[in-house]
Amino acid sequence: MSSLFPALADARAARRPALRFGEHALTYGELAGAAGAVGEALRGARRVAVWATPAPETAVAVTGALLAGVAVVPLNPKSGGRELGHILADSAPDLVLTAPGTLLPAPLDALPRVEVDTADRAAPPDDGALDAEHPALVVYTSGTTGPPKGAVLPRRAVAATLDALADAWQWTADDVLVHGLPLFHVHGLVLGTLGPLRRGGCVRHLGRFTTRGVARELNDGATMLFGVPTMYHRVAEALPAEPELAKALAGARLLVSGSAALPVHDHERIAAATGRRVVERYGMTETLMNTSVRADGEARPGTVGVPLPGVELRLVEDDGSPVAAHDGETVGEIQVRGPNLFTAYLNRPDATAAAFTADGWFRTGDMAVRDPDGQVRIVGRRATDLIKSGGYKIGAGEIENALLEHPEVREAAVTGEPDADLGERIVAWVVPADPQSPPTLRELADHVAGRLAPHKRPRVVRHLDALPRNDMGKIMKRALTRD
């Protein structure tokens, strides 16, 4: 297949800005040289770990390894010792790439180390002859149902996803992307860093997300913003007091949210203050991106758009049969096929086989409905967000959105728990806007029943000081227990 990063070999692009982290910037010519030096250091390596801090050295390390045909295992710097030890034992990297002077935790002590100097220069390797199925990344899943599994993502999947998003978002070399996402995950690394580099555009990383940083970069020529719902919630909260932020968002070409559902309430607040709609997309580690609202389409709050070019998507019943109706109400599990899929879970042929149907559809475990026009609305994970109550299949996501529209609710999560009569009853976990005066069960049940349907009202409410979240802002529902 062709190079993942054609601009690195294009002399006409050598002076174009490629990366900026704070005051540290690299042009395409400088990035090509620095990536070439990394490639030289990796001669003979098969797979390497990258200590994925939000720094230019991480971007250079990953780019250099991919050009050299060496698979990359991004490591979360916040990982605990047990998780880190499992990932290292499972992936068996030949060495670890870091920024100079980085202090690494004990599980990495025995691993040879290469320090990435962004000022080093060497001719970049030519990756154009590498096979499309050659492994590019091994990204570990969150491990909510056991130890994390390493999803092997081939070069084909990276290229297919980024090119499909370019089509959907009209993404070109003229775009400048700003974000503050971590670089150990698909969102920040593949979409947020490799995406601009494949297009020949520029990425400006904030280091740490702040609304002031977003406003500064968008008002200084950036055209796109990537974020997770937690970040957009902070944006929505800050807008009334930060006119420069409202101006910046209003002038952006594209605002994209992902990694979890963006509450409708935050969609509406941002749209009201800026006149701009946030675009949502849907993907996961194993599939990269599956669907998106298109830049030239309708950004309908609560939907993740339509399948991307090349992606097949279907909803199925519990028995595997296709969902009969695209009526915006009938819930089914999402299954996908396409060039965006991973090849296997590393060292886990059993898990790989279980993840696919006999005819090659990947079982995502995500539950959704489809509107009559084909737009997909995610209602939650099968394991934690599908509630079977009183004969109905109910998605937690739409109830959470309804709860967040209540003025006395700051945060909300919905789960199911066993009920002798209903099978499962709906439980609302609520962070009150005023802890001294939390909303009652009756208030919240009536509020939900009036917006959705009576059978979707919560039967139990539990008040919390905060919801448990992971590094990507996703609510960790398995941590929500009665005691």
Automatic annotation (TrEMBL):
Boundaries of every AMP-binding enzyme C-terminal domain copy: 398-474
MF terms in GO: medium-chain fatty acid-CoA ligase activity
Xref: Gene3D superfamilies: 3.30.300.30, N-terminal domain of ligase-like (3.40.50.12780)
Record CDD domains: MCS
Protein name: Acyl-CoA synthetase
Pfam families, A to Z: AMP-binding, AMP-binding_C
Ranges where the AMP-dependent synthetase/ligase domain occurs: 11-346
Entry similarity comment: Belongs to the ATP-dependent AMP-binding enzyme family.
PROSITE patterns xrefs: AMP_BINDING
Organism domain of life: Bacteria
SUPFAM superfamilies: Acetyl-CoA synthetase-like
GO biological process: fatty acid metabolic process
